[in-house]
Every structure is written in structure tokens, then in C-alpha cells.
Amino acid sequence: MRGIARRPLPHAPGAGNSISGPQILHRSSRLIAVGFVTAACASLVLPALADKPTSVLQRAEPITVSALPVDFNRENPEQKEFGKLIFRGGISVFASSAHFGGYSAIALDASGKTLLAISDAGTWLRASLDYDGRLLKGLNDATIGPILGADGKPIRDDKLRDSEGLALIEGNPTAGVAYVSFERNQRVLRYPFASENFGPPNGQLNLPAEAKRLDANRGVEALALIRGGKLKGTIAALPERLLTKKGDLQAWLIGGPSPGSFAVKNIGGFDLTDVAGLPDGGLVLLERRFRYSEGVQMRIRRIRAEELMPGATILGETLLEATDRYNIDNMEGIAAHRTASGETVITLVSDDNFSALQRTLILQFALQVQ
After folding, report:
1. Fold of 53-367
2. How far apart are alpha carbons 113 and 138 in whole angstroms?
3. Average pLDDT for residues 325-332, to the nearest whole number?
4. CA gap 179, 170 in Å, rounded
């Protein structure tokens, strides 16, 4: 994934004759955010100000994660409906550990209470999601640890540890088996994991011959297990930006009853950053577009189970599209779970690129009943 910087946010509206304490706090927070982002954009000729940890975690260790609540619409926090989704709450999270950050993919358990994330610095995070009713408010019981190489030791080489995609295929986020995709050195490895370790790998997912066209910094960014329907058990693998001859986004169905290639319609030059399986056998895609002239944008698209088949070019349904006027960052990870009441909840995480000018956001939305 290429690092990004964000353009300045819209200026706060002019002050009136009387401003309350909460208004002052709100406007001050916005001005601070503008200052940070302006500083980031002042050096557009340079890469994003990222600083991956040079040291390597040797073992799992507990960390304390702090959280600040965020609204999706800064200007109108009361707004909850966005596109075809309902905002269920968001937090900006941070920790004192230099190894916290860079999260590119997430998985949640069926209850939506346990989270597993992988970082492009070759580490994993596990934590409990804390709710106030249906409102996400924090992370508890957090642990971070190293992703192990084939030798059973933490991966040290930066060219080998850039983990991007995560598909949970057995178990749950506490203990199970997952496929993890790595870019730069392109590969998808099978990882058994438990509460205190992640690996070593014991197999790999064979990619189609078309994968030889993958760019070193734009590999298989998105992985998901198809969880129902006629393709149940298939792995969906989507590169960040590998174009077909018609200019659409290449994708693959690997294993399962009907393996083969499909394509996602290229709309507006967005890149694919993650994918999650829906309980009915469909998929939700997370997409990102960044231009210095317009800032960062995010889109969530739904692909229904009946649309998925080899040879298909799929437009899908846009559930939400947002610019950086809303509370987004470099959105990279997506997960989906169904609550006991039958509500489908979509969880997003952003990759902060280990930059002081970006944030690790966790946002939750519910899919409106249709």
C-alpha cells in the first residue's frame, strides 16, 4: 500500500457573537486537525511521514489502548444515515507502543466482540471491543505480537513482513487458521494461530498465473472466505489495482466449487483495499482513492451472492461513498458480522502508516434492512 497524506479539512465556520464552551472545544479540535493536515500537505513532494518500527517484537505482550469517540459527520454529529448504512459509532485509538499501527486487515468473531488485526509492520493485534449498548466506545484486553516466519521466528526483513490481507478460514479471532497475503514479496500463506502466537505458516494459497503481473507495492490487498451460498468455502482474492484488458479490477475465486477469475467494475479510479464475506455468501468491498488535489475518498460496495461467478464483471451496489469532509483516513480494513437480532454490522479500520499526521480509526455501520 502506498502511503498517503490528507488535504486540509474545510475551515470552521465563522464565529457568532456568542459561542458556548462545547462549541469552542469542537472548533478548536477542528482547527488543530486542520493544522496537522496542512503540515502534512506542505511537503507533497515527499512520501507520507511514516516511521515503521525498526525493532522487531520478540513475543506477544499486553498493551493499553486509549480511545476517543468520533462522529462520522463532523459538522452534524446527529446525522446517522449515510448512503445505505447507519452509523453505529467510531473511535480513534492509540497506544504507547511503537509497534501499534499500520493495520491493513481485520477479522471479528460472530458476536462482534473480539477483533484480530494485522499490520503492515508484520505484527498482529487482538482486543475486545467495548460497547455501550450498540455504540462502540473502546478496546480492552489488547495484545500485540509478531507474525512468525517459516523458521518460527519473527519476520525481520521489511520486504517480507508487509502483511496486507486476512481471511479467517477456521476458528475465531482468538484461535484458528487464517490466510495472510503479503506484498513486495508476493505470497499468501496459511497461518495457524492461538492466543499468544501467530504461526509459523504451514502452507500457502496458490495464486493464478495472472498474479505474475502484480506490482511489488500493489499486491493481493484483500482476502475473504465466502461464507454461504453456492460458492461457500471459496477464497475471494483481490489485488489492490490489477487491471483487466477492459480496464476493470481483476479478482479471483480460489478453491471451492467454481474457481476462476472475475472482475469488479472500475468506477472513478478507486483502488481495492479489503473485502469481507457476508453471512449470505455475498461480499462487501472497501475502496480508496487518493489525489493530492482532492484528498482521500472511501467507498463501500456490496456484491450479492448471485452476482459472484467466474467470468463475471460486477458493478455491485454502492452502500456508501465519502470524501475527507467526513471522518475518514486511509481506510484499509473491513469486516462484517451479524448480530443476534439479525442486523449486519460492517466494521472498518484505517492504516495510519505509522505517521503522526494520520490516525487509527475504527468505524461501525449497520446495513439498512432492504
Report:
1. Neuraminidase (2.120.10)
2. 11
3. 97
4. 10
